[in-house]
Amino acid sequence: MKICITSQGNNLDSEIDPRFGRCKYFIFVDKDGLEFEAIQNPNVEARGGAGIQSGQLVAGREVEAVLTGNVGPNAFETLKAANIDVITGLSGTVKEAIARYKKGEFEVTQGPSVSSKFGLPS
User: Fold this and answer.
1) With CB atoms counted within 10 Å of each terminal CB, which end of the chain scores lower, N or C?
2) 76: domain CATH number?
């Protein structure tokens, strides 16, 4: 199985993006190794529905968990409906997050960490 980390760049040394729906990249990592695929998020500039659309994109990749800074209510519900664990509150690099995930250092988030429309430019 794979995990998905929101990222500001397209490699494992990139910083975690604090936004889920409008993150710059999704990095999909095989949890048993460090093979990864970085996908530029097509929903960064979405006027609305970025959380749901991003959640559907991630769900289509058969991941077991999403690691991110924050997740809004629509994205959270979309991911939970796909039986994907959501872990929020992360910072640092993607590589650090993967290592901590493998050690079991995170607890699954029980609800959205921000309100809807978080991450929209003001």
Assistant:
1) C
2) 3.30.420.130
